[in-house]
Amino acid sequence: MKTYLHSNNTFHNYICRHQRINLEMMYFFYKIILIQFFLIIGYSHTLAQSDYSFSVGGGMMYYNGDLSDSKVLPPMELIRSYYTADISMLMIDRLDLSLRYLHGSVEGDDALSDEKDNLGRNQSFFSNIDEANLMVRLRLFSVRSKKIINPFGMAGLGYFWFNPKAKLNGKTYELQPLGTEGQFIKGGGYPAPYKLSSGSMALGLGVFIRLSDNFGLRIEGAPQITFTDYLDDTSSYYPDSTALAATPNGHIAVQFSSRRPKGFPFAGRLITSP
Q1: Cβ neighbours of residue 196 closer than 8 Å, sequence gap 6 or more
Q2: Which domain holds residue 29?
């Protein structure tokens, strides 16, 4: 992901937390996915006599959002691995542009929660993440200075694909086709089916560690704001259970829409409320 490609040690974030605002049409802007990457050991190589470089790496990632506790780190069972590769071009002496591909997965599970309200909600999901990202990095020092440690700032735009799933009685179901929040109920002002892809923005900081003229290590942290509220298939309100049951996959959708042991909540109740 950089001019002369470094192995990554990416402290990289996809963040998932949302706030409710009065204008529902603006709601999706406030869903953030936080996936933190760390402990990455990668391999990088600078193409000889050029401003291009290539790197590969990997690390760990986790989800923090609607289906997670308020604490920063999740249970160890929910931490997943990811892999990445990128190619970079040095635009000017301190600025490079990189194109990156990332593959990983995330998971949320109320059953592992330490909070009573989340345990009662009893929702879960898991999803693969595939992302393409364009990132610019501005170094503090010139590349030609050959500093061993060179801090940088970064900003980028990306596009990622996801597909939330969950298990019921040992069988795995894709959640988007079920319309668990009433997406396939006709009338009633329910949301339309959501797309399984979204754009993202990233801002962050990092450091290059020079190992030799051709090899190096990169550590970075970059929260990424995404424009979807459905990474976890959870966004707003419980639908009317009778109307949901009448949809094409209603008999399954009702079971995934609410897994609260005390019965289906009333229509219009906020899913994330106690």
Answers
A1: 161, 162, 163, 176
A2: 7-162+189-236
